[in-house]
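Chapter summary example: a protein plus pyridoxal-5'-phosphate.
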Amino acid sequence: MSNAATRLSTITSRMRRACEAAGRDPATVSLLAVSKTFPAQAISALADCGQRAFGESYLQEARAKQIALAGRDLLWHFIGPIQSNKTREIAENFDWVESVDRLRIATRLSEQRPEALAPMQVLVQVNISGEATKSGCAPEDALELCAAVAALPRLQLRGLMAIPAPTEDPQCERGAFARLRELHRNIAASGRVDAARFNCLSAGMSDDLEAAIMEGSTQVRIGTALFGERHYA
Ligand SMILES: *Cc1c(COP(=O)(O)O)cnc(C)c1O
């Protein structure tokens, strides 16, 4: 097996075991391969093994790879912080945006989403651990933001995303994911979003995917365990 195939099968086994431990159907958790800082060839190798969804955090870097891989039938998720002057290029070139944390950004994405494309699939990012330096809306603001995003014509609100603060304590780890799950459930039940579509919970990375799956994650975002250590230029 290629390196990419080995890493992919290690991750899918971890996901399957976590689903078994949680009493969940493995088909309910999808894998987003987080390819930021890795070259187009690394994406191509994983795509050859059947992986279709890739997550990127830096727009210019992502665009170069999208152009190199045009025609490969991949799904692109934008997962990084979004500045207002970047929304048009994101609206034109991604299938999903997981990092919407304020209405101004969502409004621009909706206005700038080309008519020829399907509605942008959107997750609202929540700062679930309340870290001062992190992006994401405050948990207490999430319902209002979700309700406003749900009303925008060219977006489809699909759920929540979070990056909990790193912790060595498994109890704390699960606690943050549990709060996210509870928030997701409350918003879905609020009557202010389309509950049938609001069914995605993007949580869990290379080090904590098991805890996230125990607490209801429907999509894990895996970088290091698939591609190796990142080296920032
Ligand atoms: C980089 C990144 C990941 C992947 O993290 P790993 O620990 O390398 O698996 C997941 N989600 C977001 C939002 C990221 O920026």
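Key point: Residues 37 and 231 are 7 Å apart (CA to CA).
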